[in-house]
Write a structure and sequence with these properties.
This protein is α/β, with parallel strands linked by helices. It has helices at 14-21, 48-55, 69-78, 94-97, 120-126, 162-172, 174-187, 220-229, 301-308, and strands at 3-8, 26-31, 37-38, 42-43, 60-61, 82-86, 104-108, 116-117, 131-138, 148-155, 203-204, 236-240, 248-258, 269-273, 276-280, 285-293, 299-300, 316-317. The longest helix is centred in the middle third of the chain and has 14 residues, at 174-187.
């Protein structure tokens, strides 16, 4: 039996946390991110991990930084054997990791060394990877850079979005976490692990609002991957280039790729079919099925057609470049470190 301090904030960590609470190990406390402050100085609801911990009557701490002397005093008081970290939102220093006898393990939502960073699930889907998975590492101060203790793979379904994939991965990660803890319990501070190949490292940077801008000059498959990958935030959007009026921003709520050999300029409305707007891309077409005009409610494409008078031959365009600047990753498989 190990004495464990859990560190996590978001929903990705919850299934593993619940399994640990039901295991033979002693979970001592949770460290999570500080509560967010909303408009009007209101506090956001407790993080998913904090809610689970409080349900289990577990002590909860939310230091601004886990690497401060104050946080270290908290951790020293628990005399933990191991830190289990997942979806926490902070990077532990070498000194922080040294405060548990066996250091820390981290559950990450990719097949490391691919997609180190904040948004691995999103970028794997954006890039059209056929499979992804989860990796448990024995932590070092380098972000997502420690030796691999366990790994599990799964195909990326053609029509699932990032929310659905992340939920599947959170469940997939439970057994690798338990197996990795067993490795450390049996072998001590130097468990058998596989060093990551530095030549294969790619990055998965944090998402930005502008990432949702649809680039019609890409293929229908790429645009559909983008739409699925960037749910629920930043979502995807485009602008209707109206004649004699300011472009109208449209949030795209639902779309489907459509095979086509029509020769129409990317972004142009090629046709209207069954109440759907069919938009040309570099290769293939996209059927817009549900949209939300700026400042309005979500509506079916047919209702938008009837209410706004949009017609074939008009165009959608991009005013906020999808991946501008030197932080832009290439389409496959992610920017190299």
């Amino acid at each position: 039996m190990l004495r464990i301090v859990m560190m996590g904030t978001g929903p990705f960590a919850v299934p593993s946390f619940r399994r640990l609470l039901d295991s033979e190990h002693e979970v001592l406390a949770l460290l999570t991110q500080p509560p967010r402050v909303l408009r009007g100085n209101r506090q956001a609801p407790p993080s998913p991990m904090r809610a689970v911990a409080e349900e289990a009557n577990l002590p909860v701490h939310w230091p601004e930084s886990v690497n401060t002397p104050e946080a270290h005093e908290i951790l020293k008081g628990y005399d933990a054997d191991l830190f289990v970290v997942c979806d926490y939102g902070q990077i532990l220093s070498a000194e922080s990791l040294s405060l548990a006898k066996l250091g820390g393990i981290n559950l990450h939502g990719s097949l490391l060394p691919k997609y180190r960073g904040a948004a691995p699930v999103n970028w794997a889907m954006y890039n059209g990877d056929p499979e992804t998975g989860v990796t448990v590492i024995h932590m070092t101060p380098k972000l997502d850079g420690g030796p691999i203790l366990a790994i599990a793979k799964t195909p990326i379904d053609a029509d699932e979005d990032a929310v659905e994939l992340e939920e599947r991965l959170s469940q997939l990660g439970v057994d690798p976490v338990i197996d990795s803890i067993a490795l450390l319990e049996e072998n001590g501070i130097n468990p058998p692990g596989e060093l990551q190949d530095a030549a294969q490292v790619t990055k998965a940077r944090r998402l930005r609002k502008e990432d949702g801008d649809l680039p019609w000059a890409r293929t229908a498959a790429e645009i559909y991957n983008q739409h699925r990958a960037f749910q629920p935030w930043p979502g995807t959007f485009t602008h209707w280039l109206r004649e004699g009026a300011k472009p109208l921003r449209l949030i795209v709520k639902r779309m489907t790729p459509v095979a086509s050999d029509a020769h129409v300029a990317p972004g142009q409305i090629a046709s209207v079919q069954d109440g759907r707007l069919i938009v040309a891309t570099k290769s293939g077409q996209i059927a817009l099925e549900e949209v939300q005009p700026a400042g309005k409610r979500v509506m079916q494409a047919a209702e938008f057609l009837n209410g706004y008078g949009i017609r074939p031959g008009q165009s959608f365009g991009s005013f906020e470049p999808l991946l501008g600047g030197d932080a832009a990753p290439p389409a496959t498989p992610g920017n190299r470190s």
